[in-house]
Amino acid sequence: MPSSVIIVGGGLAGLFTALKLAPRPVTILAAAPLGAGASSAWAQGGIAAAIAEGDTAEQHTHDTVIAGAGLVDEAIALGMAREAGDRVRDLLSYGVPFDRDLEGRLIQSREAAHSTHRIVRVKGDRAGAAIMAALIEAVRKTPSITVHEHIHGESLIVKDGRISGVIARDEDNHRIEYQASEVVLATGGIGHLYAVTTNPVESSGIGLAMAAKAGAVIADAEFVQFHPTAIAIGRDPAPLATEALRGEGATLINKAGKRFMTTLHKDAELAPRDLVARGVFSELLSGRGAYLDCREAIGARFAELFPTVYATCQSAGIDPATTPIPVAPAEHYHMGGVMTDAEGRTSLQGLWAVGEVASTGVHGANRLASNSLLEAVVFAARVAHALPAHLEAVAPPVSRDDEMSSDIDEDQLGILRETMNDHVGVIRNKIGLETALWTLADLAVHAEAASLKSMAEAALFITVAAHQREESRGGHYRDDFPKSDQAWAHRSRLTYQDMQVYVQKIIGAHR
User: Structural domain tally of the chain?
Assistant: First the structure.
């Protein structure tokens, strides 16, 4: 039987997979124009790679394991770290202008929880945008890659226990079917499920819901990373003050000008993200406020070293060289997702997942800074290598009858996002999680738009997993179970049926 491949998603993971498949034919379905809806393009820090003299893949893995709070698959993480150099060289070959010193060597910076300088950057804070620009240009020049933009994946077609295609909507909201024997999900994360996020609207968890409803296993859904320093200027998505600022010596202070992280962790502002996020959240909750103070560490060099952050602050009337930046935690990255093996295969035949939508085991309970872009390119290359050697082009799509509305009720969407922010956010507990379960289950039943239903179901996976895990670990913190419990030192796994049964059990217990 001939094989054909569709990649759902036009971010870093999807584009890199397509390029690595060349000259084999592949079709990309992108919800927005290439790059526009990709959280990868917004990544400021860079790519973690142990390529400097004295650094090793083993040390990179050690840092990854420590940050992951006991749940990292060490063998998978070591494999990723060992492939980092090759993937950075791939990106250089596609034209990514990584920062170099006067002798032409790659410049590497340090970020939180890394034991040394190993972050490859572009102009301080423009790595994501530069990488995406280079890959988009390479994709446009590759004849074997067909790109369909403004196509929103809605569901997967399963026949005889394996994938046979994708149901999607075009820019006129017509429902269409693409047939393919292999589907690679590269749909990104779940950020837009939260009222405060650093991610674009396309990061809405729909890929997770698509895979789950088709029969794939979801792993580690409870582990959500909140970036501690989103710039709090009332924008959605919230702009990001990159962690590299703290790597350069910026400090976190409250309204009184007092540093608060020094009493919470030995590494202070460079502590793991979950600890810094809770520190910032607690200052805000107490009314003391939270600010990133770059005046002494960066000062007049700000515009040159961090032009993206500088421009954002300037647009809000803030000069970060002379004034502390108001910050707040924002949903930033999902460690959980569709469970895969070391080559990106999911538990459903013919379905692959790569990038933030996947759960490979390399992040555990808390992602190490700048491992996300690395994971995307490493596993994209692996998926491309593991897909069939002989592929045919995907046939043109055919129209399908509409079953649900395509128009999202903005009031329902607002309820969903506020519910996740309030009850499944930085700090969680049983009462809040059960409140969320009730609200989200009701939304899943009454949503008229298929996309909103999928968002509610993705949110339910996160909430159910968080309710089940009666401990605190990494990005999952419960104030009713504030300590880690060795009995929970394992990854979580849920199917769609598991999630539904659990929700009904909790709802039934309170009737």
Answer: 2
3-state DSSP helix/strand/coil % of the chain, to nearest 5: 40, 20, 40
Catalytic-labelled residue, pool 273, 278, 469, 473 = 273
Q: Is residue 252 one of the residues assigned to a domain? A: yes
Task: Give me the pLDDT at residue 460, please.
Answer: 98
> Per mean pLDDT, which range of 29-43, 111-125, 160-174, 333-347 is the poorest?
29-43
- The confidence band for 42, taking pLDDT boundaries of 50, 70 and 90, is low
140 is annotated as an active-site residue: no
Separation of alpha carbons 464 and 479, rounded Å: 17
What letter represents residue 316's amino acid?
A
270: domain CATH number?
Answer: 3.90.700.10
Which residues, at least 6 apart from 390, have a Cβ–Cβ distance to it below 8 Å?
2, 3, 24
Q: Which domain holds residue 264?
A: 228-329
Backbone φ and ψ of 456, nearest 5°: -65, -40
* Integer angstrom CA distances of residue 430 from 189, 190, 455, 466: 25, 22, 22, 9
Judge whether 138 lies within some domain.
Answer: no
Tell me if 275 is assigned to some domain. yes
